[in-house]
Amino acid sequence: MEVKLDKRYELGVPAQNAWAVLSDLESVASCMPGASLGEKLGDNAYKGSVKVKVGPATAQFGGEVEILSMDVANKSLVLKGKGADKGGSSASMELEATIEEADGQSILVGLATVIVNGKFAQFGGRMMVQVSDVILRQFVDNFIAKAQALSGSDVTHSADTGANESHSETANELNGLAVCWALLKSWLGGLFGKKPAS
Amino acid sequence: MAKQIVKMNLNGQEIEQLVDSRMLLVHFLREQMNLTGAHIGCETSHCGACTVDIDGESVKACTHLAVQCDGCDVKTVEGLAEGGVLHAVQEAFYEEHGLQCGFCTPGMLMRSYRFLQENPNPTEDEIRTGLSGNLCRCTGYQNIVKAVKSAAVKLQQKESATA
Amino acid sequence: MNAPVKTPEERKAELQGMGDSRLRKEDARFIQGKGQYCDDIKLPGMLHMDIVRSPIAHGRIKKINKDPAMAIPGVHAVLTADDLKPLNLHWMPTLAGDVAAVLADEKVHFQMQEVAIVIADDRYIAADAVEAVEVEYEELPVVIDPYKALEPNAPVLREDLAGKTEGAHGARDHHNHIFTWEAGDKSAADAAFANAPVTVSQHMHYPRVHPCPLETCGCVASFDPIKGELTTWMTSQAPHVVRTVVSMLSGVPESKVRIISPDIGGGFGNKVGVYPGYVCAIVSSIVLGRPVKWSEDRVENISTTAFARDYHMDGHLAATEDGRILGLKVDVIADHGAFDACADPTKFPAGLFHICSGSYDIAAAHCSVKGVYTNKAPGGVAYRCSFRVTEAVYLIERMVDVLAQKLNMDKAEIRRKNFIRKEQFPYTSAFGFEYDSGDYHTALEKVLDAVDYKALRAEQEQKRNDPTCPTLMGIGLVTFTEVVGAGPTKMCDILGVGMFDSCEIRIHPTGSAIARMGTITQGQGHQTTYAQIIASELGIPSEVIQVEEGDTSTAPYGLGTYGSRSTPVAGAAIAMAARKIHAKAKKIAAHLLEVSEGDLDWEIDRFKVRGNDEQFKTMADIAFAAYQQPPEGLEPGLEAVHYYDPPNFTYPFGIYLCVVDIDKGTGESSIRRFYALDDCGTRINPMIIDGQIHGGLTEGFAVAMGQQMPFDEQGNLLGNTLMDYFLPTAVETPTWETDHTVTPSPHHPIGAKGVAESPHVGSIPTFTSAVVDAFAHLGVTHIDMPHTSYRIWKKLKEEGVQL
Fold first, then answer.
1. Are C76 and C119 in contact (CB under 8 A)?
2. Is C641 strand, coil or helix?
3. What is the pLDDT of residue A160?
4. Which one, B106, B133, C516, C768, has least CB within 10 Å?
5. Cβ contacts of C690 on chain B, cutoff 8 Å
6. How many CB atoms lie within 10 A of CB C591?
């Protein structure tokens, strides 16, 4: 099952900060709720995993993430990730992410094609777009926080931090119940005329 | 796996059993209590083949834990007949040819039993809506509706006879 | 004792024999929750089996790690294809001459395919173990569209068939091609089309659906290592065939294999084939020496067991200007899934599809069916289809409507014009079927009168001219002939075993009886209807005739129940066995009454001496005498067995009419009326027939109006639970009106034809005919199923229909 996402997020931080976070795979990975980077596989490829928690149950998706190309001048990169969980779901994503500038403010533009296979597609297919929306919102919030924390310090890009063994765990796991709650809130909000935050 | 004692009144008998916390009521009835009347037709609580009666309500035993029945009154199809005398719904299903393969029948009977107590004099539409939680693949429901109507009449006659 | 003398009518009524709407003998256990279905069976020491399944539709298995599952307390074994290889059981032969994987051997071919099995103490531990088995896959490109599967560069699905240019049914010209099967006369058909003033063509898809009986498939396999005997309770519509297959696969002699089909919660063709689950349970039981139970859940049932249909059909009719059909041509692409496991008689890879000339006298016809492999579950023949007759009848009835529309002719009128006439029976069709009997004209007029067809058309006309009318009204009409009762052994066999059927009857000294047949009821009421046949033949009340089926150790060999074959074939065997007993009884009666056989007349339940009503012997008297001192030359006892090889199929027919009102705003259809007239020849129990018809119509309603099995590009089956798969409740299901005519089959001992699949075969095109008819004034000639509100709403928008 294929889902195409086309998103623009206003970041409220200088473009350089945003690019510094985006072009550092470890930084970006740590913004993804529940994600952690593992072993380095190549120059721009890592093994990664995402842990999803729904109530007492936890599922762990293991996979690979790789930066396919990077255009520093235009602050744009293409990233490919794929993963599978042992329970029979798999997903792959190709994402083109760009930091655009407008009036001194930066915008994170993402074009993604996500293909989901297995149990997720069978049972969760109809929820894909909405769930992605919520997860991406969390990601962007983390991203903005990280970019803001960089202001004032050196923001030169460092592509290779040699993180062979270190696992940069995020503070929060991807909490399935929280996602459902957020979904419910945004749906209810939609009923009363409020547009859900994109 | 944690085990718990569960006590309930099952078809008029007080019982006490040790069960896994995660054991579904339908498996408890079928495998531990050897009451195989309640059947399993799906795992999404749509088909109703597992319908039983708990504390005066129709309940799908496939989405109910055995431990949730602690202190409850549970009735299954095996408890419908009393003293060897068939319940009016059982007679009616037989007389109106409201069953073919028999797999949905225990659930249909248990639901009809409770439905007629909720609505003793239903219209055809009300019967169809009242039984909409129970699927059947064989009968097309037409004779089941006739059976429930007939059972309603039987129960009302019994009611006025004993009144 | 001087009991009051009963009239012949009273005696007949007491028998509750043929024609009597007597209540069913099997109901007592079902209404008290005492049926015995496979999952009810509990044996000492029994273990539970569950299955690890592939999440992807096409891929290679890189690694299977059993350890985490084996580490769970209570898990006894985890088996994969590698474990079955030494027994050569990792692949098994299918009913269609192909092979199917029992457990995926290095490759998976469809989503949810069986990859490994776990055996554990209880079903909960088994479920835990399934989650714990780790399998790594390498995904391969997926083929979902059968047309794309035939492209030159399409991915190769069946590497195990590499290089095989000959399949079980002839030449293969592409790696995903299974067979091409033809019937009729192509050059005659081409000639008819070349010279025809009018031709019409229509492409239609009969979508993939699933029979979804309320009870899923399962078995309890119990191998006794001390006796070397295998007993398996199984949800099987054909226990004897399964016994033969199991014996051949396992090496255990058939005399030591016992298959028992207990009560079955609906079959509908879903329980004919041998599934990997059965084979694995049997193997596990043999290996572990303990009983093993396998009960699949609903998702597994919908995703992997025998689906139905998935025929992409192109129909063509040639006709005269005034609507006389001159020729028929049909081309079909048949999507069989990853293995050809169609449950068809061996010589017919497209089943009895060539009944597609229908109820019409068509001189020249040709059809061709091309079977294709795709990354979907195997199957194709199931769901009350009578071996592809659902597809055939759909095709011809749609084509006749299309032709009628082209010529601006009324749908009933064009049918009248082309019907095989009563005088033409027995009628041999252009495809070689010899239709036994029929009177289509009478049946059609009966239906049209009953619904006041003229008034309905007038109402429709008035509504079409009224822009304020909130609905589109459609009238669907289908006049089908179907073919059942497979079948004559000279053309019908399953894995080489001829499709005869059997009955043995034994009368006890005190006048009651026991009878066993080679078929197996799944709700059709055999315990009652079979007893009724014997009751009428032998004058014994059906109430005291015990009917048993399904235990291969006691029942005579039969081919099982599917394709509406029980009454045509086993029913005939019953009558013939009864007549053997009748003949012996007559001899005994003659002996007891001291007359010659020629002086005796049979009346309901007794032999009477002609001209002397006081001198008679009832069957009960004769039974006792048979065990006392039989006459010279006769053995003691009173029993017979008959194996019946039918001389022909039987051809039930029907006229169905449906009125639908479609909401112009929402696309919701309301079935205002459905009138179903069926002719199944001699009617054994009208109440049971009506019940079967209600059920078949309801399943037809489900197929036409809502069932589908959508696949995405990656081969994920979207909608394999009852959340999505449309099983109508009592709320959606319309009220059915039934009617009948009786045109007995001249070649059948009791003139009966079989009935249970007709309502399904006939109703599905009727619903489509009605929905299309609602749009016909806008030039719409066909709309593919399912006719969900959403799809109809889209059509309304497409056609610019405003509220």
1. yes
2. strand
3. 35
4. B133
5. 97
6. 18
The set of catalytic residues of C is 237, 384-385, 757
Same domain, C311 and C420: yes
Q: Which uninterrupted H or E stretch holds B40?
A: none
Chain C residues 280-299 with CB within 8 Å of chain B: 295, 297-299
C434-462 per-residue burial string, b: 16 or more CB within 10 A, e: under 16? ebbbbbbeebbeebbeebebeebeeebee
- Tokens, residue A59: 């599922």
pLDDT digits (tens, 9 = 90+) for C485-531: 999 999 999 999 999 999 999 999 999 999 999 999 999 999 999 99
Q: Are C463 and C469 in contact (CB under 8 A)?
A: yes
Is the predicted ipTM greater than 0.85, yes or no?
A: yes
Residue-level pLDDT at C17: 97
Task: Single out the residue of C122, C214, C292, C76 nearest to residue B23, CA to CA.
Answer: C122
Straight-line distance from the first to the last Cα atom of chain B, in angstroms, rounded to the nearest whole number: 52
Domain co-membership, C25 together with C45: no
Strands across the sheet with C639-644, in order? C545-549, C513-517, C501-507, C639-644
Contact assignment for C55 to A125 by CB distance below 8 Å = no
The answer to whether C729 faces chain B, any CB pair under 8 Å, is: yes
Q: Into which CATH architecture does domain B3-78 fall?
A: Roll (3.10)
Alpha-carbon distance of C381 to C360, in angstroms, equals: 25
Question: In A, which residues are within 8 Å of C139 by CB distance?
Answer: 90, 117
CB contact under 8 Å between A86 and C712, yes or no, is no
Structural domain boundaries enclosing C591: 8-35+501-644
Domain containing residue C613: CATH number = 3.30.365.10
Q: Residue C530 has what pLDDT?
A: 98
What burial letters (b/e) apply to C245-281, b meaning 16+ CB within 10 Å?
bbbebbebeeeebbbbbbbbbbbbbbbbbbbbbbbbb
* Residues B103, C733: C-beta atoms closer than 8 Å: no
- Does C86 score more than 90 pLDDT? yes
> Considering the entire predicted model, what is its pTM?
0.93
For residue C203, tell me if it sits in a domain.
no
Judge: C139–A117 Cβ closer than 8 Å, yes or no: yes
C758 chain-B contacts, CB cut-off 8 A: none
Please give the span between the terminal C-alpha atoms of chain C, in angstroms, as a whole number.
79
B37-57 pLDDT, tens digit per residue, is 999 999 999 999 999 999 999
Question: A83 - beta bridge partners?
Answer: A63, A91
The verdict on C730 touching B (C-beta cutoff 8 Å) is yes
Which sign, positive or negative, has the C-alpha torsion C559, C564, C568, C570?
Answer: positive
Q: How many CB atoms lie within 10 A of CB B82?
A: 9
- Going by pLDDT thresholds of 50, 70 and 90, the confidence category of residue A192 is low
Distance between CA atoms of C60 and C137, rounded to whole angstroms? Answer: 6
For residues C216 and B101, is the Cβ–Cβ distance under 8 A?
no
- Pick one of 2.60.40.1930, 1.10.150.120, 1.10.10.10, 1.20.1260.10 as the CATH number of B88-158: 1.10.150.120
Helical segments of C539-571, H only? none
Give the separation between CA C687 and CA C301, rounded to whole angstroms.
Answer: 31
